[in-house]
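A.,

Following up on our hallway conversation. Structure tokens first:
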């Protein structure tokens, strides 16, 4: 459920300006991946993996919760490989947290590593889709649009998610 809610929240940076005004700069990402990683950090690898699988099932068969909609036809889109990467990323992030201390550096590293897993699997899916003729767009453009443009923002968002997960674990007394 957290992943679905976070998919609807855009990410942005608020910068102060003259005369106490605020400037909002939208970023090329939402909180979908961070919702998944937060679930894995707080709840562990089993719950995180189950959440990722449930999210995929809900999006493929029930509700259009993905960025570009949903349904079984979404398997043929260039975004689906990145969604497939949610499963091993959730497992990896949750598994690494269970044997380490709750600190911001460790958690930031685990979320960054999981983010890399999502993008590697997404790129592999793009390459396979291009080889089999499923995707007609230029491969380098697809990789640029789906990985290189959103990756810095997603990487930046790993730090607040790590901090939030540490706070939640302490508040909820999760071990």
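Then the amino acids I'd put at each of the 175 positions:
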């Amino acid at each position: 459920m957290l992943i679905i809610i976070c998919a609807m929240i855009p990410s942005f940076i608020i910068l102060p300006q003259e005369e106490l005004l605020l400037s909002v700069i939208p970023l090329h990402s939402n909180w979908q991946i961070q919702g998944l990683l937060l679930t894995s950090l707080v709840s562990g690898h089993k719950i995180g993996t189950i959440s990722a699988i449930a999210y995929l099932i809900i999006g493929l068969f029930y509700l259009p919760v993905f960025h570009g909609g949903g349904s079984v036809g979404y398997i043929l889109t260039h975004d689906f490989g990145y969604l497939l990467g949610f499963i091993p990323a959730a497992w990896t992030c949750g598994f690494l947290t269970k044997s380490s201390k709750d600190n911001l550096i460790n958690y930031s590293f685990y979320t960054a590593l999981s983010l890399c897993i999502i993008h590697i699997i997404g790129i592999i899916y793009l390459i396979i889709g291009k080889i089999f003729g499923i995707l007609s767009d230029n491969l380098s453009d697809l990789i640029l649009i789906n990985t290189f443009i959103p990756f810095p923002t997603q990487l930046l968002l790993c730090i607040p998610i790590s901090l939030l997960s540490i706070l939640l674990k302490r508040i909820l007394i999760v071990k």
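Helices lie at 2-7, 32-43, 45-61, 80-84, 86-98, 104-131, 139-148, 151-172. Curious whether your intuition agrees with the design.

B.
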